[in-house]
Amino acid sequence: MKNELKTNPKESLPKFRVSIDHGIAIGPGKADVLEWIATTGSLAAAGREMGMSYQHVWMLVKAMNEHFVEPLVEKKRGGSDRGGASLTPTGQQVLELYRAAQRDAADAIGKYMPTFEKLLKDKPQIS
Amino acid sequence: MKNELKTNPKESLPKFRVSIDHGIAIGPGKADVLEWIATTGSLAAAGREMGMSYQHVWMLVKAMNEHFVEPLVEKKRGGSDRGGASLTPTGQQVLELYRAAQRDAADAIGKYMPTFEKLLKDKPQIS
Question: Which member of A18, A69, A111, B120 has the greatest number of CB atoms within 10 A?
Fold first, then answer.
């Protein structure tokens, strides 16, 4: 799964949230959680990469699994609580949608950069 | 100037930053500072609206005034340090550019919402 994901969670892209009545379905933090789970294959390792406790990662994953029509993350069968985890096909789809929307937003913002550049003393970049 | 600005600083729009080598030229916080100065006509009042000290607002304004080719904010002539302030034409242009880029980014993201909606149990919105 690692190789199918084309973005780096640390890459700077515009930030937005998809909200529902009772919280945030997916936003920058949850997208990074999904991406680190896909990259590391582990909730605990994803937490370490993000400076988050295992409990916090699991809380975010549980919320995502409940808000979407299908779970986004599944723990590996037979694993312990701290064992492996991976994205389901829906999880991968949601992550790819979020990243694609971020990239399109970045493209939309990019059209304004030449004007910002004229107004700034130094060369700017989107971050 | 108040009536020429069409957005509410508290409105949720995608967040991004225009960075330069030595910092952030403009991002969500600095855009809100500009907008509150335009709305209230005062650095101190802008700070109160944002829960920021006058000193913090002034530090952000000074940075913006230095990074752009012309100042974005001017203190009212003859005013005290805590006196009135307003956006220069360049300040208003920069704020309008930032908001326009945010709105275009929101439109780009909006195209993904029907797909997110199909994947979620509840109706989502961008925030």
Answer: A18
Cβ-nearest to A119 among B68, B108, B109: B68
Three-state DSSP at B95 gives helix
A120 has which bridge partners? B68
Q: How far is CA A4 from CA A100, B2, B27, in A?
A: 14, 48, 32
Using a CB-CB cut-off of 8 Å, the residues of chain B touching A15 are: 14-16
Q: Give the model confidence (pLDDT) of A50-68 as tens digits.
A: 999 999 999 999 999 999 9
What's the predicted TM-score (pTM) here?
0.86
Q: Tell me the angle at which helices B89-110 and A89-110 cross, rounded to the nearest 10 degrees.
A: 150
Q: Which residue has the tokens 């059209």?
A: A111
* Chain B residues near residue A102 by CB distance under 8 angstroms: 109
CA distance A89 to A1: 10
